[in-house]
Records
---
Amino acid sequence: MEGKIHRMIAQARDVAYHYIRRDEEGRVVRDTAALSSVSFDIERGEFIAILGHNGSGKSTLAKHLNGLLTPGEGAVLIEGMDTRDGEQIWNIRRIAGMVFQNPDNQIIGQIVEEDVAFGPENLGVPPQEIAERVQEALARVGMTEKRRFSPNKLSGGQKQRVSIAGVLAMRPKILILDEPTAMLDPEGRREVLEAVHSLNRRERITVILITHDMEEAVDADRIYVMDGGRIALTGTPREVFAQAEQLAAIGLTVPMAVAVAGLLRQEGLAVEGTPLTQEELVEAICRAADKITGDIK
Amino acid sequence: MIKDITLGQYYPAESVIHRLDPRVKLVVTLLFIISLFVVDNIPGYALAFLFLAFWCGLSRVPLRFMLRGMRTIFFLLLMTVVFNLFLTPGTPLVSFWKLTITREGLRIALLMAVRLVFLIVGSSVMTFTTTPNHLTDALEALMRPLKRLGAPVHEIAMMMSIALRFIPILMEETDKIMKAQMARGADFESGGLIRRARSLVPLLVPLFISAFRRANDLALAMEARCYHGGEGRTRMIPLTYHARDRIAYGLLLLYLILAVVIGRDIFGLAAAIGGLPV
Amino acid sequence: MILRFDHVNYVYDADGGQPVHALSDIDLTIGEGEFIGLIGHTGSGKSTLIQHADGLLKPVSGRILADGEDIWEEKFDRKALRARVGLVFQYPEHQLFEEDILSDVCYGPMNLGCSAEEARERAVSALRQVGIGEDLFGQSPFDLSGGQKRRTAIAGVLAMQPEILILDEPTAGLDPRGRDEILALARTLHEERNITVVLVSHSMEDIARFAKRLLVLGDGRLVFDGPTGEVFSHRAELEEMGLEIPRPQRLLEALKEHGFPEIGTGAYTAEEAARLILRELEKR
């Protein structure tokens, strides 16, 4: 048991959460279940993608992971600390850093460097160490050159990288990203995803990426698909994307390579497995084609 | 375009003034402005001019930048001069048509013009050499004594610095919403006062909603980054006084003493010499 | 309506005071009933271009002609132009302001001087086109879902009964379901109402699926203007400008390099790609 707690960095136990809207007299007008019986275990160093369409509960779930919201029922544990424990809340938020969707609405400082310093300043880190952390964090996302810039002069992708640096300066163990690329152009998307993947691979930072872009989920270790506040599907990308029909039923698609492979199979071509990327698909098609030529011979 | 209006006018350069502690710059600017209203004779203004010239020279901000700020207040300046020139009663100097320039009018007009120009140039040195963030830091530090009286000093400074960050963003947003409503046939320019005021509703409602949404997002983001007020907070670059800051305070003190002694003519020197107009 | 850009230039001063050439010598014609895609890197001048089309920005030099008339002539009615050229900005739901959906959609027609009656009729018809049911008409626009909000905002432009509809990144921030709804709407408007559509997007797949003609902007210049398939065949030039080609086409080109030298590469959907692959394999 002891060992398990150490290995699991984030856990959810039967989490339920309701958004309740009341009228002036305090009567409940609307009661929407945003999360119901959500459970999971996330291991240290994993790259998790949470997929789902808007309103599926994925952002609500993200806000539970660093105590911005606390479960109505059940519990969320970060390194074994309960998010409802008021005494641990700042520890939890330091360990589980969060990057939001809109790059403009999460930068507080008027200069890149000052913004990255905001987190450690709140933690009461001594000045000399803050400066070191800021420098280090900016280097890790490749933004050192822009450290004296005003955020208003940066591109969307650069702003998101500054936001990531702002979280990194708190030395977190988990990076939660709530649709960080939804408002970016393709180049910005690439920049941000590259930065996140490199942090996960090189530094073993646990990443929880919330997205509705299927192609972004392909490189994850595991995927959780949310629908109607529940976890509808879970598994490795290969396992999840093999279930194209179930995904379609909840209004999600599959990556292009998976879709093409499925169509080819429908027409009787023996494409093996679930190729997730273009490279894998090309390989699978070549193998299938060789088989045909082999059979003819 | 609206977004071209930029707040704060920091001029990046390497100068002693740039490196001075922002608290010093704030105090110097405030006391210099006060001194302009204490002084009321020519030697006093000559002294103020010397101090200002010294202050500007050290800042390495090109003179044309300083004077650019004057353009915007040119009309204010002109009005002040004209009104004082013609409307001050006293001993007539020149008189033509229905207008009379009095000795007192001339004196007050010149005095006001000099004061205004010095005031603008003096404070623009501060804004040219200090980032808005440093200014809010300085304000927070200088207001700290008020904290004991229960004033929310940290919160005010935080609000100011957030406002400074979001003003350009909201300006741009205003521009965008305005264009979008114009694309739907909105007309913000014609019609009477009431019609024009009403035409602003489709601009202001989305702008307020956007501002609230941003405020909400920002509050969440700040909370996620462990912000919990000023308690226990440290700063990456804490404000500390260096030798140059102490020298600056010393020079300021010297100037202030001289300004009072000369500018108010405490020892009656000017009067003794007799020739200098007061 | 035929909208023509006649050697249009637009220059503005950046913060530092240096002039920025946002548009350089743009020369193009938007004909009736076309479906045009407009792509380009962020900052390539796309927004500036479409704002010129709606008379929201004035060219520094050159002319913009609506059916042959210079829109910046003194007598020209630009308000009428803005009705005929419907411009839907990015995140159009951010412009909703009325208390209920129907009134919001009426805003455009009312500005054009329509009677309350006619404005209502137009609004109802526009809301139907975007698939907002009558049960929602009285609701506050702020209570809608993201996709519904966006469709309501688009209805606000459609109620002006434009002949040309310009959509700036209409799917930005939407989930797959919301994206499909908006793109299907653009297609219906084009096919059934014969509205000219200009689609600005970062998604090459969306552009490739819908646009028959493609404009590519780079640093304020019109680099390509031609049939979509033809433009996307300039892979190297596009990639140099930081633009990608559609994924299905990329897949087919990769296959071409891996032992299928004959395979066709003009596919923009998974279905089209699968068909071309099968056709190639049948030859063996």
---
Amino acid sequence: MKKIHYFLFMTIIVSLMILGLIIPLRPDYSDTEKRELAKFPAFSVSGLLDGSYFTDIQTWYTDTYPLREPLIAGGNTIKRLYGLHDNEIHGDVAKEADEIPDEDTGEAKIIEAPIIEEIPEEEEQEVSDETEEPEAGADGTVHVEPEAAGTVYIANKSGYEMYYFAKENADYYASMINTVRSKLPSDVTVYDLLVPTSFGIMLDDEIQNSLGGSNQKQAMDYIYGKLNSDVKQVNCFDILRRHNGEYIYFRTDHHWTALGAYYAYFQFCKEKGIKPHDITEYETKDYEGFLGTFYAASNKSKELSDPDTLKVYIPMGTNTMHHISAEGEELDWPIVCDVNNYSAGNKYSCFINGDNPYSQIHNPEIHDGSSCVVIKESFGNAFVPFLVDNYEYVYVIDHRYYKGSVSSLIEEKGIKDVIFVNHLAFTKGFINNMLGLF
Amino acid sequence: MLFSNLFFVLLFLPVFLIAYHFVAALSGKNVKRENTALLIFSLFFYAFGGLKGLIVLLVVTVIAYIGGRMMIHAEESARKVPLILTVSLLVLILAFFKYAGFFISISMPIGLSFYIFQLLSYVADVYTGKIEEEISFKNLLIYTACFHHVLQGPILRYNDIGEALRKRNYNSTTLSNGIFRFCTGLFKKVLLADHAGELANSLLPNAADISSVPTLSVWLGSICFSLQMFIDFSSYSDMAIGLGEMIGFKYPENFDYPYISKSIREFWRRWHISLSFFFRDYVYIPLGGNRKGKGRKILNLLIVWLLTGIWHGSTVNFIVWGLFYFVFLCIEDLWREHVKFDLPAVIKHIYVIFVFNLGWLIFRFENTSYLLTALKTFFGMGENGFTMQTVTLMAKNNVFFFIVAILVCTPVFKKITDTLDQRAKERKVKKRTVSFVKMLISVVALILSIIIMAGSSYQPFLYNQF
């Protein structure tokens, strides 16, 4: 028996070693993590001396071990045995959230010079040129910019990202909007649409509070209270909250669904004084099998393994847009595209082909010369398709990637509406990006 | 190279074992050839931490070798000079790497604190005559660099392995025992210690976030950290002992369930035994121990605990941590002398758990302001209340983990296997059955660990681009 013990032990480690040495079996890209896996390091003398060369070899060995995905899944199954998992928490238990002031509603100051903060390397990396362009894989997979997520709370098979108010950022954001307003001609209207997250909309206030998160309604009220009165505020908190019995946020992803974005569009139309299209007017399609950022951030929690379905509303006037990728490549693409063949983690790219620096949409059925520019991060993607049937031209700028001047774009194209669609958890870096566009 | 890494378990280890047994078979179990194989693999293993580190390791071994050689042939009275020279040189090198990092960009070779101490004990043992014959450089280098213990101990004495370097035996029993020890150690490290570490990072962040966690979070977090410290460290010793056993070495135990101690004195006899005994034998006793009066004893203790603190790290908190234990040991001494009644065992356990848990809190935070915040919150004077739902939820998500991890800190599992062995000896159960159960445990532990290690490269894309 003892000999069998040794034999069995050796058989396991030797056969798995051989498996590990079959290099072609090693994966090089991870879909759920949205990253290139480690490469075998290039030899360098300094790496040999300080050991980094060997460390990198070890990283490569583990990172690209064959059968990685099933092994990770297996690992998660094992880790479920650690405890009871009706609700889950992933990430930090607490973060610094600022109190949201009740009364301090003076208008935010115009910014003379942006506050430059050192961006931690990680963040910088993610905005690097290499990863920002959605790149079509052989299987029709589109690899998009990694997004989300901080601390994820899981309850009832849905993920929620904790929201922490940061007063300094909130003030800076309001100043940025006011500054942009002051820089633009008075016949241009600035709309500010802040997007709350499912944490604030779907969860009971009490639960949010007990989890240590900040109240998003109060946060939005605070920020809107600091805006110049000439800025049109599109406060979609209440309408979303009223409809929170509907499928307005994904369960496995931090984004809102097209229906959630529709309610924001509805509110926008109200603010602009136009009649929104009825939701029933649109042709719809369902794309199943979406497992988004929460699923990935929770190490593929079993609680979130039930995929989301994207119900999309196809614009009526046109479903074609023209966009420029980060590399300056120009291409035409459906505004809402078929993502049936996309991998489970990438299906949110169905809206305006994910995040691109610049896109433009021309609706041939409208001839009034109306135009708007949307300044957005990814939450804007699901929102843009609804604008198509209200403007002859819609321009879309992702402030994280666009390097040009929006001021000149506005002048050049005669744009009259500037619509900011910003996720509530903006960072200073994002605000500086947007400030830099004007 | 860590043991709990796929590269080690699924490449280095199988290649080593095959090569070693191949050499053994070819040479008819010639121990010198086996030693050579072990040495080559060990140097290769250590080189993975960088060639610079390997150079340091070779240099300090040469220093100790020369020092030892000079002493071994000298009269006892003439041994003092080489002893002082060698010891000072080794200590200076250790101190240099420990503190130079504050001034220049240099990193300490991995495991240096461990193998310098081994060499110090070697030099001292030659001096006192515990090692009588001349040791070859090759054997001394194996003693320093053997991959089993070079990175994290146990801190061996030369005599622990001297015999085995001349002649050692391994057979299917030692192999099977070694595999069992290694696999269960790996399991403890990968499935329990690392997870405890993750929880400690969430509940007791070693960052500015520490100011925003509630009291319960610090309590649970410090427990997780205590669990991590013991399980991580002792599992490493388990793996080292198991690897040694596979090829016929018998290393001394380094941990004896310290968390079940009933006094701090006992705790330190059970925690990192090879280090405590090092300080006892090479510092405390040579300084006179308790034989030179009470004042001198306290001074000697103070020196030992200052050194213990310094050995663990270069920042102030480690010194505070060492002195923290010095204070408790003094209090216990006074208690033993002056108080005649005995406290109930439960109270003693609670006292010890409280002290080491608080100790680890000091150990964790190099940043003083984080430490003060953590301590304030620990004692219920924090600003975030007693608990938050995130904390209770995290506890609930890990309730079974806590139970198993705490049991691992007690001798429960050891008692079970010991009982099985005993019963097999008494022929109450079949030996085969016991061996079979152990084999099953090894295999399951190994496979589970491999699965988790493979998944450890998973990086959910935290932070943060909306």
